[in-house]
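Bug #77: duplicate submission created two jobs. Keeping one. Sequence:
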Amino acid sequence: MYCVIMAGGRGTRFWPFSRISRPKQLLNIVGDTSMLQMTVDRLRKISAVRDIFIITGEDLAPAIRKEITGVTPENIIVEPSGKNTAPCIGLAALKLCLTQEDCVMGVFPSDHLVVGHREFEKTINTTSHLARKKHSLVTIGITPTYPATAYGYIQYDPDSDEDHLDAYKVKTFAEKPPLGLAREFLSSGDFLWNSGMFVWEVKTFMEELRQYMPELYHNLDLIKDRLAIDPQASINDIWKYIKAESVDYGLMEKSKNIYVFKARYDWSDIGSWNAVYDMANKDKNRNVVKGDGLILDGKDNMIQSDGRFTAIVGVDNLVVINTADATMVIPKDKVESVKNLVEMLQTEKRNDLL
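Kept job's structure:
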């Protein structure tokens, strides 16, 4: 298997810790190394993985080349501009087509947390086998443990596990649901969290693109022909005509040729400060302090303080993030609104804070 890690995101929900030049995937959010380095290291431990690629933007590529070990510089694929996940994955797939057209390709986000390596390796081996055997698109689903509203869901057919691999035909994909619908998904027993990880034969993926996203396929085919002649050729003139679209919406929700493997490891997309709180060690009042801080007479709080002392007194359920140039205080049930705050800073042209 050849693994592709998508590392072009901005991590806006982790402002003010995450910035344009140092987004979430390059930060030590939950461990001693960056989220991207953790992802690379996780994949390198799997014997079936033959090589690892990272796809990112021009602005982040230099830092990734400098800081990330375990991936050769020539395996850093650079997108001319961000176009969401379908063009990103498509560009990586056609790069593989030029040298490894018959290979299996795994696609992984750069900033997810996986706990349980033995189960993760089993997942990769089984999905690779399934992609070869069924010539299908394979996605990885996580058994829900609570009615999450921050994750997408995959509904599967419980009676379709022909080979007893814990892999099932997909019925439908569902967007992030409201709480009531998430509870229904959980009680039905045939929904999994959508992890955003995919495994497929490159040729199968390209054929599905040709059928369901023909415009993207056409442009990628033009790029492939050009790079076959000159691997260093500019593709900007073609890339600018490609529409931004997610692979979930553009392909996975339309294809009839999808299996989902029910993974058994612990997983989080570390999508917000609440996810960091959930993963962290807590004191007797369920408080978390990362860095130099103190909480008095309060519970269920989190402080992340970068370089200066931060104290909160007599309050509950707050997230306080303190950096050298910005302080953010937000209730835990509002952390998804950090993205809106960043959008406002962009509107106000506060580039000094971005």
